[in-house]
Amino acid sequence: MRRIFLPLPGLVVALLAAAAIAAPEVNVNCRVPGEILEDDPPLPLTAAKLKAKQPLRIVAIGGASTAGTAAGDGNAYGYPHRLEEALRARHPGMDVTVLNKGVARQTTAQMVERFPGDVFAANPTLVIWETGTVDAVRGIDVDQFAAVLEAGIASLRAHRLDIMLVSMQYNPSSGSVINFEPYLEALRHAADFDDIYLFRRYEIMKYWTETGVFDLADVPKDRRPQFAAEVYQCIGNVLAEAVDYGAR
Questions:
Q1: Angle at alpha carbon of residue 38, lines to 37 and 43, rounded to 5°
Q2: CA geometry: angle at 67 spanning 222 and 95, to 5°?
Q3: Beta bridge partners of 130
Q4: Measuring CA to CA, which residue among 52, 26, 6, 50 is closest to residue 245?
Q5: How do residues 80-103 score in pLDDT, each as one tens digit?
Q6: Calpha distance 215→233 (Å, rounded)
Q7: Whose CA is closest to 30, among 216, 186, 209?
Q8: Which of 23, 25, 167, 172 has its CA 20 to 30 A from that of 1?
Q9: For the chain, what is the radius of gyration of the CA atoms?
Q10: What's the CA gap between 14 and 81, in Å, rounded?
């Protein structure tokens, strides 16, 4: 049974831009139900590394929400770093490295062009690929998006890497003006067709919004730095849980 995950476009990116100061640590209850998180496709190479307690290298490639610079220092407060911290806490003594290869305002095609230098050259075990936001914002033909997505997946497969796709971020304001659903469906189809774990960030953040964990529509100015820290840390923590689930 498939489940759910998300990005933070328009409004949330703008909100995170206000977090240019060092964000504090957070302790917010942002867990999600298993049916949202759990997905059938395994991460066999990652599982082998964890079982043998061998060094695990992960590349997170994506757009602005992966780069995390809107939170002040993406290397410190972006979700890739939070993921690294969470995995190290879950696997004490293990050498876990998560490389942040996020670049803002890039389409899926532009990300695929970066694979040789930013992904393959790093020799990772697992690639976490967050994509689709810019394609949706720019209204790129959905069939073209799906074709490029499939080509990117095939390229990652050819290099024998574990793959986890990450869907777009949810925000009630941007969702009313940008039609994300066709692109979300293309991601779901690609994950199902290629038997790839889909981290459904969109649905996860929607769940957080609907259950009152985050109010993405109305963040006071003096609350924005803390808000940015909470969102990125929550995504990193839940993503670590998803990696462990896929590696079982």
A1: 115
A2: 110
A3: 166
A4: 50
A5: 999 999 999 999 999 999 999 999
A6: 16
A7: 209
A8: 172
A9: 16
A10: 21
Element counts in the chain: helices (H) and strands (E): 13, 5
Q: Would you state the structure tokens that stand for residue 47, as one six-digit string?
A: 């599982």
Lowest pLDDT segment from 64-68, 87-91, 121-125, 162-166: 64-68
Domains in the chain (CATH in brackets) are 10-20+27-246 (3.40.50.1110)
| Other beta carbons less than 10 A from residue 44's beta carbon | 11
The per-residue pLDDT of the chain, averaged, comes to 86
> What are the structure tokens assigned to 81, written together?
């770093």
Query: pTM of the predicted model, to two decimals?
Result: 0.87
- Please say whether the beta carbons of 108 and 145 come within 8 A: yes
The mean per-residue pLDDT over the stretch 31-50 comes to: 93
Beta bridge pairs of residue 136: none
Q: Are strands 197-199 and 162-166 parallel, antiparallel or unpaired?
A: parallel
Helices (DSSP H) in 56-200: which residue ranges? 64-67, 74-77, 79-90, 108-114, 133-138, 142-158, 172-175, 181-194
